[in-house]
Amino acid sequence: MASSTSKHNHLLSTLYGGATSAPPPTPSASASTSTSSVDDAASLSLSRLLLHRLPPPTLSLPARRSSAPATSPPILSLSADHTPSHDLLSSVSNLGFFQLTHHSLSPQLAHSAESESLSLFDLSSHHKKSFFPKEWPLGYECCDDDDDGDGDDDGGLGESFRLDASCSTESTELSFSSLREFTRGLQKLGLDIVDLLSKSMGFENPVGDDPDRFCSIMWISECVASSARPVVSGGVYPFIVGLQYQIRSQKYSLLSDSGWVSVLPHVDSVLVTIGDIAQVWSNGKLKKVRGRAVGGVGDSENGRRSITMTLLVTLPTESRVAPILPKLPEPKEHKHEEDEEREEGEILGEKRVFQSFDFEDYAWRVYHERLHFKDPLDRYRIT
User: Of 18, 34, 52, which one is at a domain's C-terminal end?
Assistant: First the structure.
């Protein structure tokens, strides 16, 4: 087994200049007309296998951003007697983030979910790897993960856990009742937000309540102090909306379309970030945040660990992503052809901004090529 791993690592190093080099593009992005479909399938499988063997990416933010003044995100309320105004929704669409108040999640549930999440980092290295097998995009990862390790605890540097909406594991010893309820509560809020944004932007909601048309990932990461810079483990994964409950006063760094911003949501609010999939669906009307919001380092006064619990509402891997444009009106009788074309043009009033693309191929590229400082949607923009 060790010999096989060594040979594979040697092959990876020889082909791509070492494990830390950026992986090659997947075949769908660089297909050759002279390559047969059988060769394409074999190349795609090899490419994904090699990408899967890469060490998990770790995001480290430059220290200069930690001193940026924090702003309070726009507030959107979900109270029964309050409907978000058009101006507020327009402001949200131009920023890519906001904070949600008057929601159904209780502070007690959030604290209980955080306690259960913190207990994950106290597990031994052996249990982390056996309870959370690597089944990308779900599972456990560590930036200093060593397949040849002796099973001792690795200290928790750069670790992350990615769970489904049911917080499923391979062990009957773990109980995540609060974390599971918390995750499903965030998922419901996320679906409500998707519906609200789709109506305000004028495109049909492609998700609805159909569980086969979306999936959720609870992404739990630990922020570690390193040269006065916040470090969060894990890569970047495409999503529709991301949600993070604000348990205590804590700043977050966000990479929006307009650049890096530092935000400080209200305690007990939910920080909502609009993702790349929502931007494509809206045909570019919605601005987005790239990746998850990055929290600050732990509280040095009481030794509290600083973790982020981010719920990503995303898509099944077999999905295809494309702009959702307004439907053409039904043709009317006794209407001249020129008048009909002019009316349709006025109703649509827009052209496609993005090409359609395969979600799984895009997700693999975004996560493994570590394109956090380059907009991965640029390759699909229609100029």
Answer: 52
DSSP class per residue in 73-140 = PPEEE--TT----HHHHHHHHHHSEEEEES-S--HHHHHHHHHHHHHHTTS-HHHHHHHS--BTTBEE
CA distance 185 to 111: 14
> Mind listing the pLDDT tens digit for each residue in 284-294?
999 999 988 88
Same domain, 77 and 216: yes
pLDDT surpassing 80 at residue 55? no
Q: Which residue, chain included where needed, has tokens 């502070």?
A: 107
Distance CA 230, CA 294 (A): 8
Q: Is 4 exposed, middle or buried (0-12, 13-18, 19+ CB in 10 A)?
A: exposed
3-state secondary structure at position 272: strand
Range of the domain at 27: 2-52
In this structure, are 163 and 212 located in the same domain?
A: yes
- The span from the CA of 166 to the CA of 218, in Å, is 9
Assess if residue 215 is contained within a domain: yes
Residue 195: which CATH number?
A: 2.60.120.330
DSSP summary character for residue 176: -
State how far the Cα of 383 lies from the Cα of 366, in Å rounded to an integer: 21
Residues 215 and 139 in one domain: yes
β-strand 97-101 against 75-77: which pairing, if any? parallel
19 and 95 assigned to the same domain: no
- Prediction pTM value: 0.75
* CA distances from residue 371 to 58, 235, 236, 365 in whole angstroms, order as listed: 12, 9, 8, 8
